[in-house]
Structure formats: C-alpha cells, structure tokens
Write a structure and sequence with these properties.
Low-confidence stretches of chain B: none
Shape of chain B: globular
CATH topology of the largest domain in chain B: Aldehyde Oxidoreductase, domain 4
Helix content of chain B: 10-25%
Shape of chain A: globular
Strand content of chain A: 15-25%
Oligomer: heterodimer
Helix content of chain A: 25-40%
CATH superfamily of one domain in chain A: CO dehydrogenase flavoprotein, C-terminal domain
Number of strands of chain B: 30
CATH class of one domain in chain A: Alpha Beta
Structural class of chain B: alpha+beta
Largest sheet of chain B: 7 strands, mixed
Structural class of chain A: alpha+beta
Order of helices and strands of chain A: EHEHEEEHHHHHHHEEEEEEEHHH
CATH architecture of the largest domain in chain B: 2-Layer Sandwich
Largest interface: A-B, 40 and 42 residues
Number of strands of chain A: 12
Mean pLDDT of chain A: 97
CATH superfamily of the largest domain in chain B: Aldehyde oxidase/xanthine dehydrogenase, molybdopterin binding domain
Radius of gyration of chain A: 20 Å
Strand order of the largest sheet of chain B: 3-5-1-13-10-11-12
Radius of gyration of chain B: 27 Å
Distance between the termini of chain B: 61 Å
C-alpha cells in the first residue's frame, strides 16, 4: 500500500470539495476500500473519510416512506425491528451479507458501491482486466474461470459480477438515491446509479467526481410486508451469492396485485426481473406460475461455460422465494 | 492420585493462548530487527529478463532490495522427495528461471513491515514468459521406479480379471480431488539473527531438528552454532514441515543487511511459497460376488507433482489394507505440471484415496442391494490383505456398530430420494476412516524433584493439538504428580531428539519416550534407595521394584512414594533420558531421525500391520429451491488404542471431521489454466466451513488395547477424523438425490450440471 493523504471533514461541502480532487477516494466503513488498497487494486493519493458526517447516520422507517442515511451501519438497519417487521427483505439482504464484524463497520452507502469480487480484478498479477486497467483485455473471457461471473449485463469487455445483496432489494422496490456533489444535490432512481460495463467497465456508476451518496429512500408499498431475500450459496454464511432473489408480493384475494423481483449473484449491476414480475401480475401465484416466473427471469441470460448453472439455480431461487412468501402469507 | 491418562484434561497452555501471553515465533523481536517482504513471480514459467529495483530502493525505510544477482551467501538444501530436508528440489532466486507462479523473485528488507511491503510493490520485474500448464494430464502419468518395485508402487496379488469375471456386481469409477491449501491460522514466518557465525532462527515448525540440520548443513556450521526455536505453532497440517525458500532467503537477507530480519509471508503468498495437497485422480475397479465378498480390488492413483520432484504420497498402500480380497492390483502414479512441489496436508495419503474407495464401496453396495455397513462387515479382515500379517488391533466393525447405533442408521429410507423434510431432501451416508500408526525414534528428558515437581523436555512440537498437555499427563501418571506440577518445554532443536510432528506420531512416539524416562527414573531411584542401609525398600533387589502412579513397590508389598525416596538422595532430584526404540525401527531409521530426517517405521512391520480405524455417518440435506447442500449431523466412532486425553483427542477427531466437511463441500484451490496461477489465494474465496456449516458433530471414542504399537498402546489420531468424511457426505448426497458426484468439492453447481 502506498502512502496517501487522509482527511476527515466535519462538513459535507468540505467533503465534496476534497473528494473531487484528482485520484481521491471516499472512505466510510472502509471494508471494501482498505481491502482493495491492501491488495494494490486501488492506490489513491488521498482518502476523504466521511465517517464524521454524523447527520448521514440517521434513518427513518415511516408509514409512507423509508429513508436511510448513507452512513447508517448495515448491522443497525438489519437489526431494526421496524425494518424486520415492515420490510423483511431489506433486513435479510443486509444480514445475509458478509460477516458480523464487517456489518458492524460497513455502511449502506458504501455497501451499494461494493466492487466486484472477480478474481482477475482483485489480483494485480493478471495483466488483463479492463475494469482495473482499461484496454488490457479480460482474463476471465480469455480462457479463465467463469463460475462467479455475470450471466446478465456483461459485455465483451467485462463479465464481472456485482456482488452485493442489499442492492437487489433496493432495485426491486423502486429505491432512490440522493447524491451530494460540487454541483449540488440530485436524486436519481436506484436503477440508474450503476451502469453496465459495455465498452468501459472501469466506469461503474453515474457518480461525478466529488459526489457522495447521502441517502437511500423508497416509498412504502404493501409488497414490502410480504417480502424476503433468498440467497443460495455453497457455504451457509460469509459467502457471496451463487444466486439470490429479493421478492415481495401483494395479493388481492388469489390474484397478484403487485410483485417485485430483484436478482443477485447473476448480473453486472443490480438486476430487476421485470418480465417475470409482469408474468405474475393479475394472475394466481402457484407452484406453476412461480416456476414459470423463474424461467422467464432467466430467459435472456447469457451464460459462460462456468456460469451456466446459474440459470436453473436462479430460476429455482426465484420460484422458491415467491412460494415461501406465499406460504407465509397463508400462515398469517 | 487422580487418574491422568484416558481422562479429560484442559490444555495446560489454554490460558496463555487465550490471553495472548503464549509467545509464537513471530512475536519475537530481536534488538535491531528489520522486516522482510517477498516479491513473487507474476508468471508461471519463463525467465526473469530484468529487475529494476531503483524505485524500491528510493522508498523511505527500505534498507536493501535483493535479487538473484545481489543476494549474498544464499544457501539451499536438497528437497524432501530427493531425500533432503527441503520442501522442494527447485530453489528460486538461484538464477533467472521461473518454474511456478508466485515463486519468490526478489526480497526487500526495510525498517518497518509497511515499508517492506511498499518496497516490494515497487520492484519492477520484466519476464520472458513461456508456456505453462498447471493442471496435471492423467493420460501422461508414470510410476516412480520401474514396475513391481520393492516399495510396492505397483502391486499385484492374484488375478484381477479372474476376479472381475467371477463377480456378481462390479463398479468401474474415477474420482477426482482438487488442489487444496492448508491455510493454518498462523501465517508462515521466519526471523533470523546472526551473531558472528552463530545463527538463531525463530519460526513455526513441525520439525525443529530438520530445520537445524538443514540450515547448519547448508552453511557448513556445526549444529551447535544454530538455534531453532518454535515454542508454539498456530496450526501446521503439514505446511510447516520442510525447509522452504522463505526461510533460507530470510537467513541470507539477515546476513546481507547485518541485522536480524523477520519475514511474515502474506496469505496469498502462502498459496505458492510452500506445499499444498496435489490434485489427484482415483480410479477404482471393485467387484463382488452376490454375498458382497470382494473378488477384485483395483486402485490406480494418479497424483499431480511438480516438474522437479516426485511427490509420492502412497495412498494405494493404505486402501489395499482395508478389505479382504484375493485379487488385488494397485498402482501409484504421478503426472507433472507447472507448480511448486506439493506435499503433506492432513491425511496426505488417505483423504483423497478414501474419498474414492469409500464412494466406490457405496456404489457397489447399492448395486448389490446391500446395506453399505454390511458390505464392509463381509469384507472385514484381521489380516492385512497384501502384507499378510495380522493387524495389531482392528476395531473397524466395532466402530461401525457404535456409530450406527447412535446415528439411527437403521431408520434410514431404503430407497434413493425416500427421505424429505419440508423443502429439504434428506440422505444418509457412511464411510470408513483409517490412519496408519507410524513410528519414529524419540528421546525425552525428565527431571523430578523431591519437592514434588517435574520437568519434561524434548524437541517435539505443539502444533495446536495439546502436546504440552499430554506430555505432562504421561509423566504425571507414572510419577504420581498432578498434571500441573509437570512443566513441559518443547520446540527447540537443542532439546532431546523428538520426531517431526507429522504422520500423527508425536503422542505415540515422543510420548513413549517420556514414559520411558519416567520408568527409568523409577529404576534408578529404586537402585539407589534399595542400596541404602535403611528405608522401606532397603536391601530389596532393585530389578524387582516397580513404579506406578508415583509409588515404588517391592515384590512383597513393600512400598515407598517416589517423592519420599527422592528426598533420601543427596541430590534431591533425578534426571533421566527416556528412549523410544520400537523393534520395527532399524538402525538406519533411528539414524535418519537423529540426523534431522524422517526415519518412519510402520504401519506394516514383519509382525503386524498397525492402523487406527473408525467409521463416520453423515446426514445431508439438499434444499429444493436453493440446491444448497448442508450437513446437519456428522457422527464418528473411532478406536485408536489408548486415549491419553479424552478432551484434546475428542477435539482432534472433531476437528478432522469438520475439515472433512470442508473437503467434501467447500475447499478447492481454483486454477487459472491459461496463465498457470492459483486463482482464489485468499480465505475469503477459498471457502472453509464456518460455524453455521458445522451443526451436530458427535465423536465416540471406543476402548481398544494394543500392546504392540508402543508401551502406552497409543495410535496417532491427528489425521484420522478427516479420512472418509467426504465419502460419507458424498454417499449421503447420492442417497438423497441419486446423483453420484465424483469430484470434490461437491457444490450446488455440480448438482445442477449433472
């Protein structure tokens, strides 16, 4: 790790000013940033530590809207009873991520910006990585191991997978993010925060230099109550998803009024299965329709040799999450 | 006096370890110590064209940057598989040659560890890259030595074809196991300090005598000039056995800079600078008559090896010991690829081979429509099938019966997929565990004082298993002292010879030497007090006085406590050297151990075959939607002679079984074939079981007496628990799903692909 300048501003505008400087990175919980600096993937000249901006730690679970400050800790939100009761998928997608130690340190704002776990990105001995070293190629696509790679959203330049869990819940429930930058404040839909790799996988978000995620918010909808995050992984805990689904269902009698499906462990960016949602709306939720929704969700997947298993796995995870939510509704 | 053997004794060093006061090798900081850091090769095969060290040398705090051209007085040793103490025969930084990815190419010394790492990042190496291949090619395999050689690398008994022809059912299956790395919690480290021609090396080691002999030999120093210190080891599992380049580079660097240097190897570097479990292929042809009696047993193991060593870990020698069969053929084969040399990793001969054997036995049982436990019973034998000597003790079926009873084996569904629980498919599986009883020469010094304390000293190692505690127990039992009155010191090469902590030998071999020293203390004290003019043992023939539980007893019931007898001696204490020299140890083997080598006898001697046995049963659940494979229950029953410490032995067996869960479902070093590198060289992506993966693990410890293995009747258990676990789990997956998965680890992607 090379030496770097460090500042911890007490005011948001000082932070954005500092963060807009050349080769400067923002750090909050540090669970990704410090890791990537230690392994030489990132080598910033300066770090702007925003953990002193205590105004960003708060959150509010309202009746019409939920809003979370970007510095709220993963563990705090995961363990909040109002979140557990009112939006189980959100709580579950937080506590099924990482380890207790990491969840106590990591923030929501940092979590949604988590970098890929693609091994070729993380090991600087590989010359080829378009994300780390633009224009150098992609070792994964050049005969590499691809069992952890994206089957949605990849390009010829990059097939790295977005590894997070929380983002799948946010994308499924129409979250918005507020960004504070040198040019002022803007609020954008969460599904516009991340960008597909296309030709430029080094660009992962629409964040401008100096822009800081300050808040994540979403409207409260009935489907939140009957929601869950189902995560499939080879190890029971502390492992990234092989496939996951954040789902929420609102029924009107035997008819699906609203349904939300976000997919994890399968795409370059947080992924919403809109076609699968549409297939269920206005109809019954049965084993058959749930399985059909799973198939539709993965209809357009583009697997690599190592990642083909994610198609049947992802389809079953979607179906399983929908049917589990449905059966719990029956219990109420 | 309370019983000290075959009881539960808490580790004597437990408090020191949990309070951080146990001093591990890398905790030592000699005055003026500098810090080392390795630069490792980014390519797998080729040559170093040039190394630009200028940026690293300009980095504040950097003291020296050594390359193959500038490292002074760098010495190497012969590799283990060529009969030496080294982990490999090829030594990096002797020239420009690169033979495996992650091989050291430069060594940075700096005032702080951080500056050393920064310096290492700034070393700019240019390579000429050649073609590499990291996976072995089994079709290009070969046998070490020629044909039916004396080491039994190829062995034929009877006629396999005749056995196949006579069979009612047969299986012909190939199983594979991946590269795996030990990943001990404690990182590899070496700290070297030169004072003139005297050298001290602190490093976690499984064999301090090997280290000392190798280093002294390399530098042409008398062994008395080299100290090697390894008081505690935070896990080794075979990875800290041989002398590796990081040690010899650190010793040379310390000489070069004229100051002590400490190197702590990083976790990713630990995947390339030392050994690992080579990948393997296990080919089995088994055949049986309608009653399940084996008529043919063929096992061909093909294991990966480096381009410069023949890593022969002869698993076929142990599979062929398992079941009675008139027609047996085994072959031990190797296939080369571009890696560092592999080596020993917990049950290095047994884990892979019993995954194959016990899976194939299960398949055969299904074909025969036979209870797999009964298939083992039908083929159980009290005679080694190829060596044709009796087992010194063998409690295989006792183990099966004990574990089956507690597990509820009889309640299993008889058909595939017949057991479910909600969204989970349920399956049961079983497998045999075994481990050879290896024997090494050992000495130990024991000093007892009339005031009621004793000291035990030997060059053995506590690799985290509880050796300090069991050595104290062995002495306490004979000397009649509380365990806490016995102070054990170990882990220095200057101490009395003890074997490598490998092959599950320390408790049995080094423990027997401690026992012998205590017996000798009894004999010596008896001789002294019987010659005195008064006292309860005065005038008795000393050869007829015995020592047990701290009491000297004459033939007619005369007795005196050892402590009292000692107080009659003017010295008030006595010190004896104990020796363990099993009859199977030849002079050559004894000499090898005393010279820092590995003089192992057994498990087969001209009289007996010596093995510990056990049986494991697993319940596996596979989720209908997530396809996750979980192990809610894993039971094992084991018989291994005398249990010294029921608490640490239980932990050893349980630890092996937990690792077995990992080998079955999680552990694999991924390979990037085009660039010849290990891919997941960190413990975030190299999965091992976490607490949530380890549910009910039950260990039953059966009583067994074996008077042949050693005076204590102890068999090694450090590796027994992992053997068979993967097969028990794989067999349970088959019972649940009907899918016979033949490659480890078994992952959800495998269930979905097949």
């Amino acid at each position: 790790m090379k030496n770097f300048a460090y500042s911890r501003p007490a005011r948001l505008d000082d932070a954005t000013d500092a963060a807009r400087q050349e080769n400067t990175q923002i750090i909050a919980g540090g669970t990704t940033m410090v890791d990537l600096m230690k392994i030489g993937v990132l080598a910033p000249d300066a770090l702007v530590d925003i953990s002193g901006l205590s105004a960003l730690e708060g959150y509010e679970v309202g009746t019409n809207r939920m809003r979370f400050g970007a510095l709220a800790k993963m563990s705090t939100v995961a363990d909040d009873q109002a979140v557990i009761d009112g939006f189980p998928a959100l709580s579950q997608s937080l506590w099924k991520a990482a380890s207790p130690q990491l969840r106590h340190a990591a923030t929501l704002g940092g979590n949604i910006l988590q970098r890929t776990r693609c091994p070729y990105f993380r090991d600087t001995a590989y010359k080829q990585c378009n994300k780390r070293n633009p224009g150098s190629g992609c070792a994964a696509l050049d005969g590499g191991v691809t069992n952890l790679h994206a089957i949605f959203g990849g390009s010829e330049a990059c097939v790295a997978m977005y590894p997070g869990d929380l983002a799948q819940t946010l994308v499924a429930f129409d979250a918005e993010v507020t960004l504070e930058g040198p040019g002022g404040t803007r609020t954008i839909p969460f599904d516009r925060l991340h960008v597909l790799p296309a030709e430029s996988p080094e660009i992962e978000t629409v964040l401008e230099p100096g822009e800081i995620v300050t808040e994540i918010a979403m409207p409260v909808v009935p489907a939140m109550i009957n929601s869950m995050y189902l995560k499939a992984r080879d190890r029971e805990s502390y492992a990234f998803a092989s496939a996951s689904a954040a789902v929420g269902v609102e029924m009107d009698g035997d008819t699906v009024r609203d349904v939300r499906i976000g997919l994890g462990g399968v795409a370059s960016v947080p992924w919403r299965a809109t076609a699968a949602e549409d297939s269920l709306k206005g109809g019954p939720l049965t084993e058959e329709t749930a399985r059909e929704a799973g198939r539709i969700a993965f209809k357009d997947a583009e697997p690599l040799e190592g990642s083909a298993y994610k198609i049947p796995l992802g389809a079953d995870v979607v179906a399983g999450a929908l049917l589990t939510v449905k059966s719990r509704m029956g219990d109420q | 006096m309370a019983q000290t053997i075959n009881t539960r004794v808490t580790r004597t060093d437990a408090r020191r370890k949990v309070t951080g006061t146990a001093t591990y090798a890398a905790d030592v900081m000699p005055a003026g110590m500098l810090h080392g850091s390795l630069v490792c090769s980014a390519i797998a095969v080729g040559t170093v064209s040039s190394i630009d060290t200028s940026a690293a040398e300009a980095e504040p705090g950097v003291v020296a940057v050594y390359t193959h051209e500038t490292l002074p007085d760098y010495k190497t040793v012969k590799g283990f598989y060529a009969g030496g103490p080294g982990s490999a025969s090829f030594w990096p930084m002797e020239g420009t040659e690169i033979r495996y990815a992650g091989q050291p190419v430069a060594y940075v010394v700096a005032e702080t560890a951080a500056a050393a790492r920064r310096g290492a990042d700034l070393v700019d190496v240019t390579y000429e890259e050649g073609e590499s291949r990291i996976h072995m090619t089994p079709e290009d395999s070969f046998v070490v030595g020629a044909g039916e050689d004396s080491d039994g690398m190829v062995l034929t008994k009877g006629d396999i074809q005749a056995g196949l022809d006579a069979a009612a059912q047969s299986v012909d299956m190939t199983f594979t196991t991946p590269f795996q790395h030990h990943n001990p919690m404690e990182m590899f480290s070496a700290t070297a300090e030169w004072r003139g021609d005297r050298l001290t090396v602190w490093m976690p080691s499984q064999s301090v005598r090997t280290l000392r002999a190798g280093i002294a030999g390399a530098y042409g120093l008398p062994e008395t000039s080299v100290r090697v210190i390894s008081p505690f080891v935070g896990g080794a599992f075979g990875s800290k056995a041989g002398i590796t380049p990081y040690t010899m580079l650190t010793i040379a660097a310390a000489k070069g800079v004229g100051a002590p240097v400490r190197l702590i190897v990083t976790r990713p570097q630990m995947f390339t600078v030392a050994t690992f479990r080579p990948e393997s292929e296990q080919k089995f042809r088994l055949a049986a008559d309608a009653n399940g009696k084996l008529t043919a047993f063929e096992h061909i193991e093909i294991a990966q090896t480096s381009q410069f060593d023949n890593v022969v870990n002869p698993g076929t020698h142990y599979t062929r010991a398992m079941y009675a069969c008139p027609n047996i053929h085994t072959e031990q084969r190797l296939s080369r690829s571009d890696t560092n040399t592999g080596g020993f990793m917990r049950a290095p001969n047994e884990m892979q081979t019993f995954w194959g054997l016990e899976s194939a036995m299960d398949e055969l049982a299904w074909k025969l429509q036979m209870d797999p436990v009964e298939l083992r019973r039908v083929n159980d034998t009290k005679t080694h099938p190829t060596a044709e000597v009796p087992f010194s003790s063998r409690s295989l079926m006792e183990s099966y019966d004990a574990v089956a009873n507690g597990f509820g084996w009889a309640d299993r569904g008889r058909d595939i997929g017949s057991m479910t629980d909600g969204d989970w498919l349920v399956g049961y599986g079983c497998a045999t565990a075994t481990y050879p009883t290896n024997i090494l020469a050992s000495n130990a010094r024991v000093r007892m004082q009339a005031t009621g304390g004793a000291y035990v000293e030997l060059a053995a190692h506590d690799v985290g298993t509880g050796t300090y505690t069991i050595m104290a127990q062995i002495a306490a039992a004979r000397l009649g002292l509380p365990v806490k009155a016995v102070d054990v010191v170990m882990g220095e090469a200057d101490m009395p010879v003890a074997p490598i902590s490998g092959g599950s030998t320390t408790a049995a071999s080094a423990g027997s030497a401690v026992h012998d020293a205590c017996v000798k203390i009894g004999q010596q004290v008896a001789a002294r007090v019987s010659g005195m003019s008064d006292g309860p043992l005065s005038g008795i023939d000393a050869s007829r006085i015995t020592l047990d539980d701290g009491v000297l007893r004459g033939p007619e019931g005369q007795s005196q406590s050892l402590q009292e007898a000692l107080s009659m001696l003017p010295e008030g204490e006595i010190e004896m050297i104990g020796e363990f020299r099993h009859p199977a140890l030849t002079d050559e083997l004894i000499a090898a151990t005393f010279n820092g080598g590995y003089g192992t006898a057994g498990p087969v001697t001209p009289e007996f075959a010596m093995f510990a046995f056990g049986a494991e049963m697993a319940e596996v659940r596979i989720h209908k939607y997530t396809h996750e494979i979980r192990v809610p229950r894993l039971h094992g029953a084991f018989a291994a002679g005398t249990w010294l410490n029921r608490k640490t032995a239980h932990s050893q067996l349980m630890g092996g079984m937990v690792w077995g869960i990992g080998s079955a479902l999680h552990e694999v070093t991924e390979v990037d074939q085009p660039r010849g590198r290990f891919l997941n060289a960190n413990i975030a992506e190299y999965l091992v079981p976490v607490n949530a993966d380890v549910r009910e693990v039950r260990v039953q410890m059966l009583e067994e007496r074996d008077d042949y293995v050693n005076p204590l009747g102890v068999k090694g258990i450090g590796e027994l628990g992992i053997v068979g676990t993967a097969a028990a789990i794989g067999n349970a997956v088959y019972h649940a799903t009907g899918q016979r998965l033949t490659s480890l680890p078994i992952r959800m992607s495998d269930l979905l692909r097949s």
